[in-house]
Write a structure and sequence with these properties.
The protein has about 500 residues and is an alpha/beta fold. The chain has two domains: about 300 residues, Rossmann fold; about 180 residues, 2-Layer Sandwich (Alpha-D-Glucose-1,6-Bisphosphate, Chain A, domain 4), CATH 3.30.530. The protein contains 16 helices and 19 strands. Helix 5 links the parallel strand 5 and strand 6. It is globular, with a radius of gyration of 24 Å.
């Protein structure tokens, strides 16, 4: 195996999903350790012959060693906040220790880790302390560790960018904690990727911890005002007060932005720490043109407007196994409709649900359910979707997660909203064939199946409480999909003669 093979963990996440094509462009072969290969299937680079996906558990030393075989370097881009909430710190330490041990046994020469920028010593937030502990664990093995410490990473789809954008966009007046005056040194995502890749060919970075940041050092209030200017909205009125705790701040972030309170809490706690690079060694060793805060925000907003979001913070969501539907009572609401449109048109209409498109019917009920979910601690509707048209395994669609997708035939969603049970929504498309279509007036049949396995008495109460609304919501959704599919088919037929 060539020594130019590099292992990337976290390839289904925000940074990892963008790092792989940069490594390929630089001439490396890439090995990706993933829980499920299907989450990589829709990546533009997934079919590249230089990319190999290895399924395994990062906590399993044997799986990690198997993925590392023949690799000269390995990127550690794993973080557990989304996975286990309050227990992320202990899990991160165990994951990093197992990774360092496996790297030593597999003969990996270097480990590269993207950590958090911040002052050292006492007074660090739990989030930043966890990052420091991860660094120590990764350095415990024989592989040489390179740490790049970054503050806020600005890029389309990043968690920091989404928090900033939603707060500024939705709140003309903000009552904020005192940390709004804390200084930070944000960095554009493309600058982060440059540093991560260039480290491999810069021997001086081996075994070092390097602070990375953009050219600007601003307080968060100033960054918010720059965001407002780039969004072309009035200047925000920001009132700092001393009484807002990290817990209250995280709950407010949860209500206003797509991020959950469990993710927002450690991030909010970290905002109390000044995050400014202590030196510019990284910029000297690996020179590049650094984007200003304004340039980074403008680039990210442009990507959003063009629907060209390469990866999103929500991409790394957990994909649990199917619920055990056979183990208890399952309520089923199944509806079918014959549609006078080909299967591919129906499939495209189905795949547009969620995000800006909505759910074709009863928008007010969906919005109400979204707000209820946010108040209960769930993701609500604000998580949106990465792409307005295409869906891939593992994608987030508002408070749904794509758990199965078969182009032209089916889409399966698992609910991540707060529920007293497990819920699933499946769409299946069965083509009737040309002869049947002429006879029945329909080219295919769409079947929509909602399943709910209640948990306890409250689960049963919940099902019977929402069941009366299913006729409005699901019947309307089916009719809306039918209209969209017929319009899509008509559009394709009109385009065909023009193409000829």
């Amino acid at each position: 195996m060539s020594q130019s093979t590099i292992l990337v963990t976290g390839a289904t996440g925000y940074i990892g999903g963008r790092l792989v094509p940069w490594l390929l462009e630089a001439g490396y072969d890439v090995r990706c350790l993933v829980r499920d290969k299907r989450k990589l299937a829709a990546r533009p680079w997934a079919g590249d012959p230089r990319v190999m996906a290895v399924e395994g558990d990062a906590m399993n030393e044997g799986d990690v060693m198997r993925a590392m075989e023949g690799c000269s370097a390995a990127y550690y881009l794993i973080h557990s906040m989304m996975v286990v909430g309050d227990e992320y710190r202990e899990r991160d330490r165990k994951l990093a220790t197992a990774f360092a041990t496996a790297a030593g046994k597999a003969g990996v020469e270097r480990i590269l880790y993207l950590g958090g920028l911040g002052e050292t010593g006492e007074g660090l937030s739990e989030h930043l302390e966890s990052r420091r502990e991860t660094e120590e664990a990764l350095a415990s093995g024989p592989a040489r560790l390179t740490v790049l410490r970054a503050a806020m990473i600005i890029g389309s789809g990043s968690a920091s960018f989404e928090i900033l954008r939603y707060l500024v966009e939705r709140l003309p007046i903000m009552i904020t904690p005192r940390w709004v005056q804390t200084e930070a040194q944000p960095i554009g995502v493309r600058n982060v990727l440059h540093y991560l890749v260039t480290c491999l060919t810069t021997p001086e970075t081996t075994g070092r911890t390097l602070d990375i940041g953009g050219p600007d050092v601003f307080g968060y209030e100033q960054i918010m005002q720059i965001m407002a200017e780039e969004l072309r909205i009035p200047k925000r009125i920001i009132i700092p007060v001393p009484v807002l705790t990290p817990k209250l701040s995280s709950l407010w972030i949860h209500l206003i932005t797509p991020l959950s309170a469990k993710i927002a809490r450690p991030l909010a706690e970290g905002l109390k720490n000044r995050v400014v690079a202590r030196n510019n060694d990284a910029a000297v060793l690996m020179p590049q043109e650094l984007q200003t805060v304004r340039e980074s925000i403008r680039t990210a907003l442009g990507r959003m407007q063009d629907h060209d979001i390469e990866t999103s913070w929500s991409d790394a969501g957990v994909m649990p196994g199917d619920p055990d539907w056979a183990g208890g009572k399952v309520f089923v609401d199944e509806r079918s409709i014959a549609i006078a449109a080909p299967a591919d048109s129906v499939y495209r209409a189905v795949c547009r649900i969620g995000g800006g498109q909505g759910y074709y019917s009863a928008s007010w009920l969906w919005k109400l359910r979204g707000w209820m979910d946010r108040l209960a601690g769930g993701p609500g509707l604000r998580r949106g979707r990465r792409d307005p048209i295409h869906v891939s395994y593992g994608d987030a669609l508002d408070f749904w997660r794509v758990r199965g997708v078969e182009p032209g035939r089916s889409l399966s969603l698992r609910a991540e909203m707060k529920l007293p049970g497990e819920a699933r929504l499946d769409f299946a498309i069965a083509s009737r064939g040309e002869h049947a279509a002429r006879d029945a007036g329909a080219a295919c049949e769409l079947t929509q199946t909602a399943r709910f396995m209640p948990r306890g008495l409250f689960g049963l109460v919940y099902w019977y409480a929402v069941q009366p609304f299913h006729g409005i919501v699901f019947r309307g959704m089916m009719r809306g999909i039918e209209r969209a599919a017929i319009a899509d088919a008509l559009s394709k037929r009109q385009e065909a003669p023009q193409a000829q």
